[in-house]
């Protein structure tokens, strides 16, 4: 483990501190292993709050981020305070911590905890996106796709949707599929659309399941296959997708499927 304060490297013994924290033998400051400190996992771990506060005050970026997450949502120990969360996110972001950079972008985007500023949102999303953070890549793509705070640029949107989609972002995968399905910004390619719809559908994304059902029904990008079409329509319908439910009804009325 490497201490972010003094750069000393040491072999950490088994930690008896919450969150897997270690105390640097050289400078005595706490070191948090991000792999053991998950903002989503500490919501019910009040014993970590004091440790986060101590490490955050020493400039530990991951502790600042996790403490910000607690202030953002509020816990039994910490009253919700979006302004304090924004401050802590910024401190962590300025140290190059991509999840915090994304959160700073999001807060400027929404005007949560700070004044809304689309230019600053774009800046921080881009900073995190260029570090490979897929949620920032997706949000940056949305801004370019819609022209929100920046001149609309479909090519730039597709670039960032693709990067995010390749990391498994289901919404980005669905957007990539739509681009290829409609030929908006890229040459229309139903086979490529099928590929991205399938990726999103296999993650349980109902709109992608429904569109995949449509493509199997109509034989777009794949040979027509009623059984496969019904399979995907059912998956979407079971999640409450009205269009998938209506498609199944129409198929039943047309005699394409039976009560069996």
Automatic annotation (TrEMBL):
The name under which this protein is listed is Sel1 domain protein repeat-containing protein
Q: Which Gene3D superfamilies match?
A: Tetratricopeptide repeat domain (1.25.40.10)
State the organism of origin.
Answer: Treponema saccharophilum DSM 2985
Tell me the InterPro entries matching this sequence: Sel1-like (IPR006597), Sel1_AlgK (IPR050767), TPR-like_helical_dom_sf (IPR011990)
* Cited Pfam families: Sel1
Q: Which SMART domains match?
A: SEL1
């Amino acid at each position: 483990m490497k201490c972010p304060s003094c750069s000393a490297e040491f072999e950490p013994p088994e930690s008896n501190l919450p969150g897997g924290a270690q105390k640097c033998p050289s400078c005595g400051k706490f070191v948090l292993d991000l792999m053991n400190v998950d903002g989503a996992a500490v919501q019910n771990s009040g014993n970590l709050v004091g440790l986060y506060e101590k490490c955050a005050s020493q400039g530990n970026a991951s502790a600042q981020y996790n403490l910000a997450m607690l202030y953002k949502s509020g816990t039994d120990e910490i009253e919700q305070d979006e302004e304090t969360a924004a401050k802590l996110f910024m401190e962590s972001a300025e140290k190059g911590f991509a999840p915090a950079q994304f959160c700073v972008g999001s807060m400027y985007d929404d005007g949560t905890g700070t004044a809304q500023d689309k230019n600053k949102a774009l800046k921080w999303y881009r900073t995190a996106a260029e570090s490979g953070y897929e949620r920032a890549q997706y949000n940056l793509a949305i801004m370019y796709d819609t022209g929100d705070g920046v001149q609309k640029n479909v090519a730039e949107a597709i670039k960032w949707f693709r990067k995010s989609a390749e990391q498994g972002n289901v919404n980005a995968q669905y957007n990539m599929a739509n681009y290829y399905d409609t030929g908006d910004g890229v040459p229309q390619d139903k086979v490529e659309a099928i590929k991205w719809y399938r990726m999103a559908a296999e993650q349980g994304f109902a709109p992608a399941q429904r569109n995949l059902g449509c493509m199997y029904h109509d034989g777009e990008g794949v040979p027509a296959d009623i059984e496969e079409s019904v399979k995907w329509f059912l998956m979407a319908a079971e999640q409450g997708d009205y269009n998938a439910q209506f498609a199944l009804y129409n198929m039943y009325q047309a005699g394409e499927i039976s009560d069996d």
